[in-house]
Specification:
There is one protein chain. The protein starts with a strand and ends in an 11-residue tail after the last helix. It folds into 2 domains: 199 residues, Rossmann fold, CATH 3.40.50; 100 residues, Methionyl-tRNA Fmet Formyltransferase, Chain A, domain 2 (Roll), CATH 3.10.25.10. The strands form 2 sheets. Strands 3-2-1-4-5-6-7 form a 7-stranded mixed β-sheet. Strands 8, 9, 10, 11, 12 and 13 form a 6-stranded antiparallel β-sheet that branches. β2, α2 and β3 form a beta-alpha-beta unit. By secondary structure, the chain is of the alpha/beta class. The protein is 25% helix and 24% strand.
Length: 319
């Protein structure tokens, strides 16, 4: 079976590695064009491209995978199957038909949860106790094809999206190899996989910076999930509007419900700000801010933050 890999982000690397290590016939990598900008941080702008260069794999970077030039290129590859993961473009039916068996996609959720660009984040944001990966036989509908194989895993109580995503990438390797065996034995006409129930599908849209702002009228558990689910990007933040001074944007790096009781609390109100404790009211209790990063500075624990920032009890954050 002649395979053409399509991927851009780090989620695809374990699968690509497994295909190469298991001696599959990989005719090349199709990836998104690498932006001509310098990136901040340690991760390259296109992890799959960097990996393919190191392994000596032919690389194509079409701007539009469904455009005329890309279609001509895909015909030349003459692939039996497109293996798609963390690629970043939707393939039309015309494009999928250029591979004998169409395409499969490794997706970071238990479809029909969560269809879209940020499934790992949204599973945590919604407070799910379990998630997983799915391999679908692709259709032009976003993440809507029949599920060939899947695998489940619990989400740890304090696990962040930055920790969960690489776990799911590794978890997806075996289901992809299973799906390849299924397709190798497929007669090309019989039913393949399990259709998704569109009635219970839910979306996982691309994250925006604005998604990171805390709404203190939410529950403590929802805000904890927001902090976990939005790591590493866009992060979770609130604004401290200081009397007579410039506001400070506070990024919440680690929070937990505080085991304390107050007769009256107001959403966003600072209830305690001394020693190791920075407690803020929510709609159903108190949230302890354990690690905070003032904008432009490094992450610090609550005690260090309070030594340098006298935040008065009664201050309301986020307004």
């Amino acid at each position: 079976m002649r395979l053409l890999m399509m991927g851009t982000g780090p989620f695809a690397i374990p699968t690509f590695t497994a295909l190469l290590d298991n001696d599959y016939d990989i005719c090349g990598l199709v990836t998104r064009p690498t932006p001509q900008i310098k990136t901040r941080g340690k991760r390259p702008a296109n992890p799959m491209r960097e990996f393919a260069v190191a392994r000596g794999i032919e690389i194509a970077e079409p701007a539009d995978i469904n455009g005329p030039e890309a279609l001509e290129l895909l015909q030349q590859y003459a692939a039996d199957l497109f293996v798609v993961c963390d690629y970043g473009q939707i393939l039309t039916q015309q494009t999928l038909e250029l591979a004998t068996l169409g395409g499969i996609n490794l997706h970071g959720s238990l479809l029909p949860k969560y269809r879209g660009a940020a499934p790992v984040n949204w599973a945590i944001l919604k407070g799910d106790a379990e998630t997983g990966v799915s391999v679908i036989h692709m259709t032009p509908r976003l993440d809507g094809g029949p599920v060939l194989t899947s695998s489940r895993t619990p989400i740890a109580l304090e696990e962040t999206a930055a920790e969960l995503e690489p776990r799911l990438a590794q978890l997806g390797v075996h289901p992809v190899l299973q799906a390849l065996r299924m397709l190798a034995e497929w007669d090309g006409s019989s039913s393949l996989g399990s259709p998704q129930d569109n009635a219970i599908a839910c979306r996982a849209p691309r994250l925006r910076k604005a998604d990171g702002e805390v709404d203190w009228s939410q529950s403590s558990s929802s805000i904890c999930n927001q902090v976990r689910g939005l790591k590493p990007w866009p992060g979770t933040f609130t604004i401290w509007n200081r009397s007579g001074k410039e506001p400070i944007r506070l990024i919440l790096d680690q929070v937990t419900p505080a085991q304390a009781c107050y007769a009256q609390t107001a959403a966003g109100q600072v209830l305690r700000a001394q020693e190791n404790d920075l407690w803020v009211g929510t709609c159903d209790g108190i949230l302890a801010l354990q690690r905070i990063q003032p904008a432009g500075k490094r992450v610090m624990d609550a005690a260090e933050f309070l030594r340098g920032h006298a935040i008065p009890v009664g201050t309301t954050l986020g307004c």
